[in-house]
Hints:
Largest sheet: none
Distance between the termini: 64 Å
Shape: flat
Helix content: over 70%
Number of helices: 3
Structural class: mainly alpha
Radius of gyration: 21 Å
Amino acid sequence: MRKLMITSFILALMLGGLSMTAYAAACGKDTPMDQVGDWFGTFGKKGTEKDQILAKRKADRLLACAKREAEKASKEVQQSGADMKKRLGF
Length: 90
C-alpha cells in the first residue's frame, strides 16, 4: 500500500510539473499540447494543405507569444519608471 501511495504521489508531482514547463517554454519551441493540437488540426489533410495549416498555426503561436512578452516588458518598464519617480521624489 505504501509503495502505491508513493508511486501515485510521484506521478502527481510529475504531471503537475508538466503544465508549468508548458507555460515556461520558449516561443519558438512547440510544446506537446501544441503538437497534439496540430495533429488534430491536420487530421486527414495531405501535402501542401497540411503544411499551410501547420505554418499558420505556428505563426499564430509565435505572434501570441511575442504579444505576451511585449506586454510583460511594458509592465516592467512602467513599474521601474514608477519606482524611479518614487525614489527621486516626483
